[in-house]
Write a sequence for this structure.
């Protein structure tokens, strides 16, 4: 009975899939999972703009990667896991060789895709987010949490707090509150913070904020009453700006709040106006501002009217999108060295991503000097870098206020080994022997 | 007595936060009272009103118009947008659905919510737009009596004042004007009202426009608090328990419900949350509403349900 | 012309009360089932478009089937028994998390890891129990007010699965991932296998729900729906009727939730079952047609597939529009279609289908 309606719907969808514009053969397809609508659009838009702009730049300036043009397509996930999965299924087979890699910019979607990419042999780049234990490439062959995981971030944040208080010894007996987005994203740093709290003797107070975080009055009243010495903010989207404003409303000093690198962009502080002055956040290496690559973008992309960004050009999240797109493209380039200058499969690109190495000189050549320090990815270390700085909002711009911190592997590594081993056992994955990989 | 001071502070903040929920809930009450429609799109109307206001304000200011004048112009513009919305909803969605059952009407407002969210963001953008209509800093009172004093947010007070003005205006409108009386007749029975010559489409336009103005008021307060952005539609979910405690048909009920929900959830979050884990205020508000309903199935101030065969 | 029942005589009550009393319907249904169970896998095996793409099976048909199942559950409660529920997402979550716990074993209760099928059904059972508990207020609270009772369930379980780490086996992030699916020694992994699994569940439950609804229980539900006081007066116990509707509905929804988590998502967090999911299911049954099994399928198809189709349409016809605009347009068109449909046919797709069938019986000679 359902056959007709269903048949029509299926035929229509099938027709749609078939009618997609024919791709040229010498193209590498890169999907962009983005969110320009919904509760988190504010943060999703600059990222999506940057990804598209950078691929356009490669096509316009260099004619692609070593002559292989980049084709890309955006799919709107709205930060929802089921839509993300649908987008993934829609885009994974596009192009002559399938999707090169995915970057979902959502911890929830990352979790859902982690099992699927394993079966489909497509790498997934989660720069600065995703599963923290996926740093262990021996177990998570297809996940690349480049430049830092939440556990790295947690350690860096605590290091900075300790430094402000005059050394780690002074943390003893202090109280640090973690105000977090009540989701896998917000919960990831907790294990590391618990270890640090035991080691350094500070009290960890956990304050969850329910998605999407428009109402935080009670959380901040709680903070006002229990007077923590420092607040770590692990928010996303509207939750960040609301947190800063509620902090101001309860007169909690903003310079005693430090956000993770996902809570340190312009949309997080601008709505709070003057109330955000003094607020600090981690930097995923880069900050806001224009660098050499922006000049190229203006010359090759924006001059031709192909650029997407408006005022978000050179903002924090835009720059992060650029770095993410660049690392992915460089991974493809690395893979081309081994497999030849042609469109590659996800499996081949995975090798490139795992053997990616960017020297100081190469970063300068790419126009990212000042945004990024040298990176070297190996089989055992899919993170590649564990450094970060702290920036502070002065009402108009972010100012770097600290030196480079490096997360201590002795803190995070046992946790990585433990949790990833559990995952391997659960999924019956035999960890690769990294000494034999090349 | 630090404990009592902080208890008082949570209580007061909770009551005031509740009034802000009432601002959103009032819009639902108006429409339900006058047309028996549970208007799911109220959250989307707050978003639309807020976006229209903040974008117009930005535009007029960029034209060099002084802030006060620009604000008045922007408010007028947003009101005009809400009037147009009310007309379109009445003309194209609710008008053809006169006399359908409650669930169908509810579903049609969900359709309207989708349309409004799409149109609002397409016309005015989907980023975050700061709005500064009201002061946002806080008073600290009674420092002599309690260590740290009691913190009261000025924005919350503004919200309370606006809610009071709105309630007074709505009460006058319903009780004292001819249109108000006609509204109540329509709420009772669409067909009966039509048969005695009440122009139902005009009445519905008026009430949707009034709900639009309430949405504008809510948007100006919440927009100042959060910045105008898509997340503002989530307030609808915080307004629902308020509505239910107060009863769908009662304007004072919306205020009372707001006070109960606000105080209840904040106290629960801080005192009960410490015992069983934080983040309980969302469901606590609903459990509170549920327990009120178990005692009074029509809400505290709702009209008594009379069941006949 | 082909849809004439002339000459089909019924000689027994059983024949008169069959689910498909008309022979053509029976044949069409059998053909459809044969196509679904044998045709699709065969076509997929021989790479016949459009069934050669994993996308169709994994991202369209699979979620469609599972959400149809959930919609059947919601329809039992809202459509047949008239109890408005906005907590369906929570019951899906209960099904998913309970199934996960049973499937990974509960050492505290000396339960070893149970097989997948048992876990999924036990997940449904847990949802059923929760449904009964949250259904108790329905004896006192009615209509839209009742929806708040179910919303309380929605938000409470969202919170519970986030906060209580036991449910997620102490995963640091609170996100859990489904163990391997195996049924009687067979591993279900490929898209076609998953599709067949979901299809089997849907068919079994659809048939069961249809028969329940036609039987004594279903008639009690409908009596309650149409006027509960009158039903009580003619001897139907509201307690039994309402709670049985909650139990059956939540069981089906719970099983659907377990399938959604295990078969479709693979890895999930409570956000996958939040209020949006509840609303989506409510749309499905209202748009599809309250109180019809067919409507659950049609509604699920419409609500799920239309946005996907709309989002791909501009790219398919070669238009370059930003995804933001597409999504906003998608909202507008989707909302407009809902309103249009309600105005044209407030009783939903199932009613349209029925009208179509009536017309077809006379076509092409309407006299």
């Amino acid at each position: 009975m359902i056959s007709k309606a269903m048949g029509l719907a299926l035929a229509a969808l099938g027709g749609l899939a078939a009618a997609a514009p024919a791709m040229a053969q010498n193209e590498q397809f890169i999907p962009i999972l983005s969110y320009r609508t919904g509760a988190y659009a504010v943060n999703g838009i600059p990222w999506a703009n940057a990804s598209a702009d950078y691929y356009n730049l490669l096509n316009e300036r260099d004619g692609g990667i070593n002559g292989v043009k980049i084709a890309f397509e955006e799919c709107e996930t709205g930060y929802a896991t089921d839509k993300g999965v649908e987008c993934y299924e829609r885009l994974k087979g596009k192009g002559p060789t399938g999707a090169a890699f995915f970057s979902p910019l959502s911890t929830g979607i990352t979790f859902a895709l982690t099992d699927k990419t394993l079966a489909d042999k497509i790498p997934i780049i989660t720069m600065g987010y995703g599963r923290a234990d996926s740093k262990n490439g021996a177990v998570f062959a297809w996940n690349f949490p480049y430049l830092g995981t939440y556990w790295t971030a947690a350690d860096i944040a605590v290091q900075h707090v300790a430094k402000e208080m005059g050394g780690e010894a002074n943390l003893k007996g202090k109280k640090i509150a973690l105000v977090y987005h009540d989701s896998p994203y917000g919960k990831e740093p907790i294990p590391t913070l618990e270890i640090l709290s035991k080691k350094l003797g500070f009290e960890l107070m956990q304050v969850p904020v329910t998605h999407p975080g428009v109402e935080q009055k009670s959380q901040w009243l709680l903070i006002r009453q229990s007077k923590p010495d420092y607040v770590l903010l692990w928010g996303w989207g509207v939750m960040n700006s609301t947190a800063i404003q509620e902090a101001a409303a309860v007169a909690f000093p903003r310079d005693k709040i430090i956000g993770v690198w996902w809570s340190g962009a312009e949309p997080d502080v601008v709505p709070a106006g003057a109330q955000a002055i003094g607020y600090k956040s981690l930097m995923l290496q880069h900050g806001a501002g224009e660098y050499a690559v922006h000049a190229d973008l203006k010359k090759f992309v924006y001059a031709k009217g192909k650029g997407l960004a408006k005022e978000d050009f050179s903002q924090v999240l835009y720059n992060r999108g650029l770095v993410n797109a660049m690392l992915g493209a460089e991974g493809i380039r690395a893979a081309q060295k081994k497999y030849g200058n042609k469109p590659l499969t996800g499996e081949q690109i995975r090798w490139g991503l795992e053997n990616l190495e960017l020297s100081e000189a190469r970063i300068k050549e790419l126009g990212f000097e000042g945004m990024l320090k040298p990176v070297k990815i190996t089989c055992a270390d899919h993170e590649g870098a564990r450094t970060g700085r702290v920036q502070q909002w002065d009402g108009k711009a972010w100012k770097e206020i600290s030196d480079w911190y490096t997360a201590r592997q002795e803190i995070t590594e046992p946790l990585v080994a433990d949790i990833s081993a559990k995952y391997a056992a659960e999924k019956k994955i035999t960890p690769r022997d990294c000494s034999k990989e090349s | 007595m630090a404990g009592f001071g902080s208890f008082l502070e949570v209580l007061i903040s909770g009551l005031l936060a509740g009034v802000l929920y009432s601002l959103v809930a009032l819009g639902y009450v108006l429409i339900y009272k006058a047309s028996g429609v549970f208007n799911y799109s109220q959250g989307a109307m707050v978003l639309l009103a807020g976006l229209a206001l903040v974008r117009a304000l930005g535009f007029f200011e960029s034209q060099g118009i002084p802030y006060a004048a620009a604000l008045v112009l922007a408010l007028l513009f947003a009101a005009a947008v809400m009037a147009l919305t009310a007309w379109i909803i009445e003309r194209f969605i609710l008008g053809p659905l006169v006399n359908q059952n409650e669930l169908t009407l509810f579903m049609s407002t969900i359709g309207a919510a989708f349309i409004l969210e799409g149109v609002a963001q397409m016309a005015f953008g989907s980023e975050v737009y700061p709005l500064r209509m009201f002061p946002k800093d806080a008073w600290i009172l009674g420092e002599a009596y309690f260590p740290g004093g009691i913190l009261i947010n000025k924005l919350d007070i503004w919200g309370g004042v606006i809610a009071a003005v709105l309630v007074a205006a709505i009460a006058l409108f319903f009780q004292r004007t001819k249109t108000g009386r006609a509204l109540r007749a329509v709420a009772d029975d669409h067909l009966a009202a039509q048969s005695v010559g009440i122009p139902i489409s005009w009445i519905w336009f008026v009430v949707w426009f009034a709900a639009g103005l309430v949405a504008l008021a809510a948007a100006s307060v919440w927009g100042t608090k959060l910045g105008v952005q898509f997340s503002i539609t989530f307030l609808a979910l915080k307004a629902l328990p308020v509505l239910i405690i107060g009863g769908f048909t009662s304007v004072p009920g919306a205020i009372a419900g707001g006070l109960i929900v606000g105080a209840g959830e904040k106290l629960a979050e801080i005192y009960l949350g410490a015992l069983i884990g934080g983040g309980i205020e969302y469901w606590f508000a609903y459990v509170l509403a549920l327990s009120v309903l178990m005692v009074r199935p029509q809400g505290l101030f709702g009209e008594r349900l009379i069941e006949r065969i | 012309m082909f849809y004439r029942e002339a000459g089909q005589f019924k000689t027994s009550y059983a024949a008169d009360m069959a689910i498909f009393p008309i022979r053509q319907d029976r044949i069409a249904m059998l053909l459809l089932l044969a196509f679904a169970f044998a045709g699709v896998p065969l076509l997929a095996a021989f790479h016949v478009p459009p069934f050669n793409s994993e996308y169709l099976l994994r991202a369209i048909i699979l979620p469609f089937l599972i959400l149809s199942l959930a919609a059947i559950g919601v329809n039992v409660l809202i459509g047949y028994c008239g109890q408005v529920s906005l907590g369906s997402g929570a019951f899906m979550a209960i099904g998913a998390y309970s199934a996960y716990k049973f499937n990974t074993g509960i050492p505290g209760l000396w339960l070893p890891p149970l097989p997948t099928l048992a876990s999924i059904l036990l997940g449904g059972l847990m949802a059923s129990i929760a449904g009964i508990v949250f259904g108790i207020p329905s004896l006192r609270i009615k209509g839209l007010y009742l929806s708040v009772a179910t919303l309380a369930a929605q938000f409470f379980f969202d919170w519970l699965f986030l906060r209580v780490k036991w449910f997620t086996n102490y995963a640091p992030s609170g996100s859990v991932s489904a163990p391997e699916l195996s049924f009687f020694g067979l591993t279900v992994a490929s898209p076609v296998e998953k599709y067949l699994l979901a299809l089997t569940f849907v068919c079994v439950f659809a048939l069961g729900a249809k028969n329940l609804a036609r039987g004594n229980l279903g008639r009690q539900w409908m009596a309650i729906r149409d006027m509960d006081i009158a039903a009580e007066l003619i001897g139907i116990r509201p307690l039994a009727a309402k709670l049985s509707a909650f139990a059956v509905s939540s069981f089906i929804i719970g099983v659907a939730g377990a399938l959604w988590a295990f078969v479709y998502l693979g890895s999930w967090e409570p956000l996958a079952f939040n209020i949006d999911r509840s609303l989506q299911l409510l749309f499905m049954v209202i748009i599809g047609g309250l109180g019809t099994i067919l409507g659950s399928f049609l509604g699920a198809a419409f609500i799920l597939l239309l946005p996907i189709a709309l989002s791909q349409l501009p790219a398919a016809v070669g238009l370059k529009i930003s995804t933001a605009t597409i999504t906003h347009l998608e909202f507008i068109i989707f909302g407009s279609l809902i309103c249009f449909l309600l105005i044209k046919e407030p009783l939903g797709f199932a009613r349209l289908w029925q009208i179509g069938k009536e017309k077809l019986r006379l076509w092409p000679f309407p006299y």
In short: The first helix of chain B runs from residue 2 to 35. The interface with chain A takes residues 6, 9-10, 13-14, 17, 121, 126-128, 130, 132, 136-138, 140, 148, 151, 153, 155, 225-227, 229-232, 234-235, 238, 265-266, 269-270, 273, 277-279, 281-282 of chain B (CB under 8 Å). The CA atoms of residues 34 and 187 of chain B lie 4 Å apart. Residues 2-231 of chain B form one domain.
